[in-house]
Design goal:
17% of the residues lie in helices and 38% in strands. The protein is an alpha+beta fold and 189 residues long. It has two domains: 16-46, no CATH class; 68-188, Immunoglobulin-like. Strands 1, 2, 3, 6 and 7 form a five-stranded antiparallel sheet that branches.
Length: 189
C-alpha cells in the first residue's frame, strides 16, 4: 500500500482451526478487565458447519458485484518477541476471502480501509494479493498486513491503530476491485 508503509509477510497459518478457537476462548477467559473480556469474546468468530472464519465478518457491500468478497479481517496487536524475530510491536491484519465464481481465483486487487470507533479513517489504500481460492470456497490469505511501531516517530498508523485494535473497535473493510483467474482471464469491479 503506497504511502502507508504496509509490509507483506507470509503467515504460517492459512486458516482458523478448532485449536485456534479454543486458544482464543482461553485467552479471553484470562482477561481480568470485564469490558476487555467481553470485547474479546465478541471478537471471536465461531466457524459454521461448512466453513471456517478467521475473525469478525466484514459488513456486506451492496455496491460490490465482485464474485470474490472479503468475509473477515482479523486484527491484533503483536508485541515484540525476539524468539520469533519480531523486533518491534506491530498491528497485524489477516484477511479472508470467499469466491462465489465458477473459476479458481489466483490473485486479487483490493482497497483497504481501517476505521476507529468514530468512523475516522486510520488506514486507507490499495493492495494486491496472490491467493488461490477454488470455486465456491473461502480461503484465508497466507499474506498478512502489518504496521510496525517506530518509537522515534509519533502519529504513525501503528500509534493510531493500537487503541482501536486493542479494544476491538477497529473496523477493516476490504473491497475487491480486480480478480485474476487461473485460466488467465480477469474481471475489474
Amino acid at each position: 500500500m503506497r504511502a502507508l508503509y504496509i509490509s507483506f509477510f507470509l503467515c504460517l497459518t492459512a486458516s482458523a482451526s478448532y485449536a485456534d478457537l479454543i486458544s482464543d476462548v482461553r485467552s479471553c477467559k484470562a482477561e481480568s478487565d470485564s469490558l476487555k473480556r467481553l470485547t474479546c469474546f465478541d471478537a471471536i468468530a465461531v466457524p459454521g458447519p461448512a466453513e471456517a472464519s478467521t475473525g469478525p465478518t466484514a459488513p456486506p457491500n451492496p455496491l460490490s458485484k465482485a464474485p470474490v468478497e472479503s468475509v473477515s479481517a482479523k486484527m491484533r496487536v503483536q508485541n515484540k518477541d525476539y524468539q520469533r524475530q519480531i523486533y518491534h510491536s506491530r498491528v497485524e491484519l489477516a484477511p479472508t476471502f470467499k469466491n462465489t465464481s465458477k473459476k479458481t481465483v489466483v490473485a486479487i486487487a483490493h482497497t483497504l480501509t481501517v476505521t476507529d470507533a468514530f468512523g475516522d479513517k486510520i488506514v486507507d489504500g490499495e493492495s494486491k494479493l496472490d491467493i488461490k481460492i477454488p470455486p465456491g470456497k473461502t480461503a484465508a490469505s497466507e499474506t498478512f498486513y502489518f504496521w510496525d511501531d517506530n518509537p522515534f516517530i509519533q502519529g504513525e498508523p501503528y500509534d493510531k491503530l493500537t487503541g482501536p485494535v486493542s479494544t476491538g473497535t477497529a473496523k477493516a473493510t476490504l473491497l475487491v476491485t480486480k480478480v485474476i483467474y487461473s485460466d488467465g482471464s480477469s474481471e475489474s469491479f
